[in-house]
Amino acid sequence: MKELQEIVGASHVLVDPDLRAPYETDWTGRFTGRAACVVRPATTGEVAAVVAACAKAGTAIVVQGGNTGLVGGAVPGGGEVLLSLARLRDLDPVDRLESQVTAGAGVTLETLQEHARAAGLDFGVDLAARSAATVGGLVATNAGGIRVLRYGSMRSQVTGIEAVLADGSVVSRLTGLAKDNTGYDLPQLLCGSEGTLAVVTKVRLRLVPLLTARTVALVAVAGTEAALDLLAAARDRLPALSAAEIFYADGLSLVRAHAGLAAPFPDDHPAYVVLECAARVDPTDDVLEMLSGCDAVADATVASDAAGRARLWAYRETHTEAINAAGVPVKLDVSVPLAEFPSLVARLPATVTDVAPAARTVLFGHVNEGNMHVNVLDAGDRAEAVSDAVLTLVAAHRGSISSEHGVGRAKVPWLALSRSAAEIDAMRRIKAGLDPAGLLNPGVLLPPGSPRG
Ligand SMILES: Cc1cc2nc3c(=O)[nH]c(=O)nc-3n(C[C@H](O)[C@H](O)[C@H](O)COP(=O)(O)OP(=O)(O)OC[C@H]3O[C@@H](n4cnc5c(N)ncnc54)[C@H](O)[C@@H]3O)c2cc1C
Predict the structure, then answer these.
(1) Contact between residue 142 and residue 371 where contact means Cβ atoms under 8 Å apart
(2) Is 278 in the pocket of ligand 1 (CB under 6 A)?
(3) Ligand 1 centroid to 320 CA: how many Å?
(4) Which of 148, 340, 371, 451 could disulfide-pair with 403, CB 3.0 to 4.6 Å?
(5) For 388, which DSSP code?
(6) Atom 19 (ligand 1): residue with closest C-alpha?
(7) Is there an atom of ligand 1 within 6 Å of 129 CB?
(8) CA 166, CA 441: separation in Å to the nearest integer?
């Protein structure tokens, strides 16, 4: 403890239970654990010294950014040193020639977006936790969000990384060369590694053009099949399409009650799709033309001004918050091929009530990627049974048990539904190579085994 205090300063080693508490429980309130202490370094050098001290003492570390992760990967399993990267907030000037920027791991997504926009560019990833989610966490989870359709997930934005390995050594590759075939791609390996291979301290990020002409459509449809017909029409006819999100009638009711929002349409409908187009010239006419020619549209409302767009997005983006306000949910984030999407959606509610009769299932997601967020409220003591039933159903639909949130602690028992024994073995060998003592995020991502999972 004394050594850690000497490295970061006594005020940045939190041992008091009240000070530790906000770091020890996750955003959903479902995952909680006790940390030996919370350490808050401010520089890469301090991170390296803390990690080296823990390695010398054989003390495990749990890595945390904004603590908005939804699979329990950033909270302690019990007794680890919790390493918070939130103070690594350096943000270099935007490199306009390369359209890139270097950001500290603790920079929030919102700060990064504002920084890029002030320089006439934009950042390709966006998600509702933008005010708290950090660059390091986004990389470690390979976060997706609402713009994957256009720009890909986090790994597509990463051109370089600086990270501290489990022994405290620093690897740095921040030049961001567009072409660089000189061996293993460590930055890409760290994308989606969930803090199990290294501690990310800085990231070199690709930026995208700033598109200020935006149009959002909220479209009512008869169900999931109709939503896919609408998506096909939008992909076909709208080259500026940048988001396509789905939610359902029960989710809308929950959101409206939570946020006091007006009904978007005179009538209720089974499902709703949010489409957004972004371009340099106003895409509204193209959106209206596509909507008027698409039989799947039951009703639609369109906005191109900032306030109107935010009003329509709120119906979708308030879902996570409204669900959390209704109770501690079992949150599952899955994806299936689009051809399987309607069947998955149709079977999910009964799959859940078969094992947890009192439970309610609220679905919403990123329809373009066949990514459904399955939120189960009132599961009581049946949380594990619900996860098992839903993830088994997803595997039977040729899907992934984690589309974008990661495996964390929540989904470790089910990893083998999405990854073969040979793949898990290869992952273990990578882990053993970079973290032979199993000190980084034990219990996260990999099932127990050797080194400590
Ligand atoms: C309202 C809401 C909406 C969300 N929407 C989306 C969405 O649309 N798409 C999506 O993908 N996710 C979404 N999320 C989940 C979450 O925001 C992302 O997973 C995000 O990437 C987590 O970032 P964080 O900084 O909060 O990471 P944390 O929660 O602190 O950590 C997440 C994981 O990354 C590891 N980690 C964190 N920082 C580092 C680092 N510097 N080095 C190494 N490992 C690290 C942690 O150990 C943990 O395993 C949402 C969450 C909320 C609350």
Answers:
(1) no
(2) no
(3) 14
(4) 371
(5) H
(6) 69
(7) yes
(8) 10
